[in-house]
Specification:
Elements lengths: L1 E11 L4 H10 L3 E12 L9 E3 L4 H11 L3 E6 L5 H14 E9 L4 E2 L2 E2 L5 H11 L4 E2 L3 H8 L8 H10 L4 E7 L2 E7 L5 E7 L8 H14 L4 H21 L14 H8 L2
Parallel strand pairs: 1-2, 1-4, 4-5, 5-8
Antiparallel strand pairs: 2-3, 6-7, 9-10, 10-11
Helix pairs in contact: 1-7, 2-3, 3-4, 5-6, 7-8, 8-9
The structure holds 3-hydroxy-5-(hydroxymethyl)-2-methylisonicotinaldehyde.
3-hydroxy-5-(hydroxymethyl)-2-methylisonicotinaldehyde (PXL) binds next to strand 1 and helix 7.
């Protein structure tokens, strides 16, 4: 199986491709990459980071790939540096996704009710167009509310219905319910289902990327959507639980490495 991960390289801070590459490789699938930007760190809580937009490199990369006749079984997009990149990603899906391949969009735009630095309402509207082409979308609750046009932090039927109009299989992460945290998704029957995990205090940048990469890896290994959600949620929760106990600067990301063996054991069962 061959996965194309389209995401940025945040040199420090363990998110995006620094997370997708090890997780997908550990799953036993090929992870090819298309870097969208290079940053010295991610943008969540660091000051003075550098940002090199790679949009102008992408057409030449695609021209070369075309000459090689490459096709991907999965295309997974994450942090995109510009609206122009959203247009390019939809072209990549049309040109490079294998016939029975799956397109997974993590509409990385914000968290805790706010858009990340540099993102605008116009970007949200453009991201909706990409979600319309996806087989699965993986927004966190903040991104889900922006996409659905519903108030944060309410989790409602309207929110799921609006998301389902964009993409028939929305998977919303980070939904708080009492002491638990839920993943909400549209089950096989077409009704909303949830998978609940213990809510561990602590915000870690890159947790969404750990979930999305594990989800894509599990799908690529032939797991069903529901199995992939359970595997990815258990892995992410275990990594958050462990990292919350380790005193450290949360900006440097999750210690997902320490939980990867258990994740793989579960994946291989
Ligand atoms: O993990 C999400 C993410 C990805 N890429 C960059 C980010 C963030 C979150 O802040 O800044 C560059």
């Amino acid at each position: 199986m061959r996965v194309l991960a389209i995401n940025d390289v945040s040199c420090v801070g363990k998110c995006s491709l620094s997370v997708s590459l090890p997780i997908l490789s550990a799953c036993g699938v090929t992870c090819d990459v298309l870097p969208t930007a290079i940053l010295s760190t991610h943008t969540g809580g660091f000051e003075g980071y550098t940002f090199r937009d790679l949009t102008s490199d992408i057409p030449n990369i695609l021209r070369h790939w075309k000459s090689l006749g490459i096709r991907f079984d999965f295309i997974y997009s994450g942090y995109l540096g510009s609206e122009e990149q959203i247009t390019l990603v939809s072209e990549i899906k049309r040109e490079f996704l294998a016939e029975s391949g799956k397109f997974i969009v993590d509409p990385v735009m914000g968290d805790s009710g706010k858009l990340y630095a540099g993102f605008t309402q116009r970007y949200v509207e453009k991201m909706r167009t990409l979600c319309r082409e996806a087989d699965y979308i993986l927004p966190n609750l903040t991104e889900a509310c922006y996409l659905a046009g519903t108030p944060y932090p309410e989790f409602s039927d309207t929110l799921m219905q609006n998301l389902s109009k964009l993409c028939p299989r929305p998977i919303v992460t980070g939904v708080h319910e009492k002491n638990n945290i839920l993943v909400a998704y549209t089950g096989e029957s077409g009704k909303m289902e949830t998978y609940s995990s213990e809510n561990v205090e602590g915000f870690f940048c890159g947790a969404g990327d750990v979930f999305a990469s594990a989800f894509v890896g599990a799908l690529a290994r032939g797991k069903s959507e529901k199995q992939a959600i359970v595997l990815a949620a258990n892995f992410t929760t275990a990594a958050i639980r462990r990292s919350a106990l380790e005193v450290g600067d949360k900006r440097y990301g999750l210690n997902f490495e320490a939980e990867i063996f258990t994740f793989l054991k579960n994946l291989n069962e």
